[in-house]
Amino acid sequence: MKVVHIVPGSGGTFYCQNCMRDGALVTALRRAGVDAVMVPMYLPMFSDGEPVQADVPVFFGGINVWLQQQFPFFRKTPRWLDRLFDSQWMLNRVAKLEGTTSPVELGPMTLSMLEGSEGNQRKEVERLVAWLAEHEKPDVVHLSNALLIGLAGAIKEALNVPVVCSLQDEDGWLDGIASPFGEACWDAIRARAGDVDRFVAVSAWFADRMSERLMIPRDLIDVVHIGIDLTGYDPAPFAVDPPVLGFLSRMNPVLGLDKLVDAFIALKKIQGLEKLKLRAMGGAVGEDREYVSSLKKKLAKLGLESEAEFIEDFGREHRLAFLKSLSVMCVPVEQGEAFGTYIIEAMAAGVPVVQPHAGAFPELIEQTGGGLLYDDLEETLEDLLTNPRLARQLGQNGRESVLEIFGIESMARNMVSVYGDLAK
Predict the structure, then answer these.
(1) Is the CATH number of domain 2-227+408-423 3.40.50.150?
(2) What is the pLDDT of residue 98?
(3) Residues of the chain with CATH 3.40.50.2000
(4) Geometric angle at alpha carbon 15, from 174 and 22, rounded to 5°
(5) What is the pLDDT of residues 202-253, one digit of tens each?
(6) Which CATH number fits domain 244-405: 3.40.50.2000, 3.40.50.880, 3.30.950.10, 3.10.50.30?
(7) DSSP one-letter code for 283
């Protein structure tokens, strides 16, 4: 079986859960004997395993997509000119520019991409489909998320193969688009849902949510939890002295780093937690950097600048060392997320987590027993940081569960089952 994964690249500038999921899945599929090819869009792909083949180009290069959206002239330019803007050094520079990953001003472009062959990037659709037909000839095409659903119709028409579409946190992007484009984008996805043979959500909670929002039957959505490559996730020491409170995700306001900083400041005043440290990792892009700078200044005014560390290098080896240094990890995303790969990473290292009672977090905590859900962040963190026996037990529970059910091999087996049913 040959499977092509079409994925949006992030340029490797921040902790991208979707990118890591796609990279891990393709790696695991190859290990299982599946002929899996990863095709990046927009920007170069980041993943721990770097599974992108050297001979696979970046399609829908971010610069060309933007130019074709803004200026009709670029919708008809020759390929030699487009190739210049698709060069890796130019795309790498774009990845670091402010606003390249924010939905606020990208409503018209998002809508155009969802319109596929009817959008302003029509020649990019034609180029991708022609390349797939000539070079890959897949049995199944897998779209990384529903924001790529505009490609499904053209792919099915040209290749006559089933199309699978993953679902993970698209709602956050779409709801962040300014009116009237936000609802227009939702409508565009609903209108093209019939081009997809199977949707695959990363949690039962998100499958239920997207069934309702996309107005599609729940039985058309399978659930395949994210898995990680468990190699190297040694257990963290049970006694960390001084205790360390950790954060692993993109460092921006939506993911709640400022809330954790405020909780850290309050916890430092509690007897027995005076030596508490804060360590945050996950990268930043654009306005994120100003946000992180403001948090550092806030800590400096209180004389706590030496007690907190903000680490942008989140490569695999750095993450493994980082996790082993933590006592507890928390990413206080108040609105919740579709999964939370950082939760599984922390648990794999035996680190208990504290998360809001939102999104898929209750689902993961219930399955693993590796953490606590909170209503009051400071109170719950205090309870865990001052109770080593409880923290140790939760850490052990989480690690055992992740080793059993959240490896990339489990994710690959479940996905192959989906592919097999469709290929028949």
Answers:
(1) no
(2) 47
(3) 2-227+408-423, 244-405
(4) 75
(5) 999 999 999 999 999 999 999 999 999 999 999 888 767 899 999 999 999 9
(6) 3.40.50.2000
(7) B
Q: Catalogue the E-assigned strands of 22-103.
A: 35-41
Tokens 């792919």, located at residue: 155
How far is Cα 61 from Cα 41, in angstroms, rounded to an integer? 6
- Alpha carbon dihedral 215, 217, 219, 220, in 10-degree steps, equals -70
53 class by beta-carbon count within 10 Å (0-12 exposed, 13-18 middle, 19+ buried): exposed
Give the total residue count for the chain: 424
The pTM score is 0.90
Answer whether residue 386 shows pLDDT above 80.
Answer: yes
Q: CB atoms < 10 A from the CB of 320, how many?
A: 16
Cα dihedral 237, 239, 240, 245 sign: positive
Contacts of 179 (CB under 8 A, 6+ apart): none
Q: Which two structure tokens, joined as six digits, stand for 103?
A: 């939905």
Give the angle 273-279-285 at the CA atoms, nearest 5°.
Answer: 145
Sign of dihedral through CA atoms 400, 231, 321, 344?
negative
Q: What is the mean pLDDT of the chain?
A: 90
Q: Is 160 left (phi over 0), alpha (psi -120 to 50) or beta?
A: left
DSSP annotation of 228 reads B
First to last CA, the chain: 11
Q: Is the pLDDT of residue 101 over 70?
A: no
DSSP secondary structure, 134-188, as one string: III--SEEEESSGGGGGGHHHHHHHH---EEEEESSHHHHHHTSPTTHHHHHHHH
φ, ψ dihedrals at 199, nearest 5°: -95, 145
